[in-house]
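hiii so um. not sure if this is the right channel but i have a protein structure encoded as tokens and i wanna go backwards to a sequence. like what aa goes where. can anyone help
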């Protein structure tokens, strides 16, 4: 049953596998392995999970009497993996990308207009940190992001679902000069690892138990993803690719939003680099 869930989640049937790109095949292989791991997981729901994370240098502890995941848990995992698959497909499609910004530090941002007229942005950068370090900062310790990124007021993990899926509530800080203004997000986030590459994907999600909060505009992100890949010549550095796909909602003109979002990406990498240099 679970292999069929992979195809349902990613929108992929057997005849399409032959035409898939290398990046898409890799992501699908990882997703299949993770769903197998999810079957072994259920029993750990009875205990509070100290952190969700990929254990790069640790053997996985054996779990006794595994219980199957619930329908709710599978729903969140499917949403996260489906978002990652769609975002990777968007990145893999090389047509339509247009140059936006080349920063003095080597960061490059391109954009593409998607069906429905939404503009997405792709940032490519090289960061002086290993894949493990960046994964730890951006997924395992995501709740600490406000400590080094002043654009974030708070990120709270609402649910740990399976080994590598979380549901989060994020509140942007009120920063001077920001034209977008304060927003909050409710998202499902998923991670997977293949060799020396980590994929982080996500998308907006709705929960009846967590409706839009008073005083905030509930924005929606996704499908979006980050790819962190070790540089062949230096494993202490990583190639960082970030697809930013966001609907900020509200009444802001698209032209203003499309000018602001590339700056959001540049600000994020600037704060991240500063934090890495102080670590």
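sure thing!! here u go:
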């Amino acid at each position: 049953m679970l292999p069929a869930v992979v195809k349902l989640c990613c929108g992929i049937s057997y005849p399409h596998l032959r035409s898939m790109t290398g990046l898409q095949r890799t992501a699908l292989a990882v997703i299949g392995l993770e769903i197998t791991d999810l079957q072994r997981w259920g029993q750990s729901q009875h205990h509070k999970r100290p952190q969700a994370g990929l254990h790069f240098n640790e053997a996985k502890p054996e779990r006794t009497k595994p219980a199957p995941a619930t329908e709710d848990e599978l729903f969140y995992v499917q949403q996260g993996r489906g978002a990652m698959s769609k975002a990777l497909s968007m990145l893999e499609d090389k047509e339509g990308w247009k140059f936006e910004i080349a920063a003095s530090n080597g960061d490059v941002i391109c954009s593409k207009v998607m069906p429905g007229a939404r503009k997405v942005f792709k940032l490519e950068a090289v960061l002086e940190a290993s894949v493990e370090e960046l994964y730890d900062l951006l997924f395992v310790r995501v709740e600490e992001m406000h400590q080094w990124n002043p654009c974030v007021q708070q990120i709270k993990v609402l649910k740990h679902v399976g080994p590598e899926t979380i549901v989060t509530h994020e509140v942007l800080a009120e920063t001077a000069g920001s034209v977008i203004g304060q927003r909050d997000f409710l998202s499902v986030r998923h991670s997977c690892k293949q060799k020396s590459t980590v994929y982080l994907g996500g998308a907006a999600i709705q929960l009846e138990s967590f409706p839009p909060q008073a005083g905030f505009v509930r924005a929606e992100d996704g499908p979006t993803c980050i790819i962190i890949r070790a540089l062949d010549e230096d494993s202490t550095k990583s190639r960082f690719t970030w697809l930013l796909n966001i609907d900020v909602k509200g009444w802001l003109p698209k032209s203003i939003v499309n000018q602001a979002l590339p700056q959001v990406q540049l600000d994020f990498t600037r704060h991240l680099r500063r934090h890495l240099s102080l670590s």
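oh and The CA atoms of residues 118 and 254 lie 9 Å apart.
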